[in-house]
Amino acid sequence: HALRGDLLLNGLETMLEENFVKQRQALIRSLISQRILRSSNVIRAMEAVPREKFILEEYRRSAYIDTPLPIGEGQTVSAPHMVAIMLEELDLKKGLNVLEIGAGSGYSAALMAEIVEPTVSDLNKGHVTSIERVPELINFARDNLKRTGYSDRVSIVFGDGTLGYPERSKEMLYDRIVVTAAAPHIPVYLRAQLNKNGIILVPVGDTFMQTLIKATKYEEKMEFREVCNCMFVPLIGEDGFRF
Ligand code: SAH
Known about the structure:
Elements lengths: L1 H32 L6 H9 L20 E4 L2 E3 L2 H11 L7 E4 L5 H10 L11 E5 L2 H14 L5 E5 L15 E6 L8 H5 L1 E12 L4 E8 L4 E9 L13
Parallel strand pairs: 3-4, 3-6, 4-5, 6-7
Antiparallel strand pairs: 1-2, 7-8, 8-9
Helix pairs in contact: 2-4
Bound molecules: S-adenosyl-L-homocysteine (SAH).
The site of S-adenosyl-L-homocysteine (SAH) has 25 residues, from strand 2, helix 4 and strand 4.
């Protein structure tokens, strides 16, 4: 009986997995028809990363509904359309180094890692570093990334991301910086850690509603553009919201 039970469970798991793949494909088709998903590398990443593996068990069934979902500690994983918008605006390429503030579930970090991936000639390029201030979520993100095979390409770091990644600030500039929490302004340390021709994306506003701001750094000046309205959980820290 135990063996039959195991077989039955295995069969059920395979069915669920196949179902998730179908749901993922349907969601991607929908995001393409809405013209939110456009680039082949972003579409490929959304196809490759299983969102259901970054979701708490009690919400897993809803993994492919286009909505944010709770990940514990009062935080959420962003809705797929919002992740897609950010990925499209970031203009990621193979070999770029990315700094993310707000690792949460690790889902967006995995997607970015899928696109930048290390180059064979330089293993220090194409890496994603993601900072998280909630210790419980550090473990959650690391477990999710390990299960899905992204551990080598993503580093989850504990700290206040409004200060950038201070341990590395002297030697390390990032090609792309993305803040996945609502900020009162673009944190100054993050502007300083952005490489020339780099792009930084930040939801700027109050703790209820924000505008996604895209800033591109040229030689001396920064160029700013408003992408869309959005609703993120607050960026809490020294150069963010202080509670
Ligand atoms: N990118 C995540 C979304 C996480 S929600 C995902 O794909 O799941 C935003 C996250 O930012 C939360 O986990 C929150 O704890 C974190 N956060 C808020 N302020 C922060 C700060 N100052 N430094 C680092 N992380 C922060």
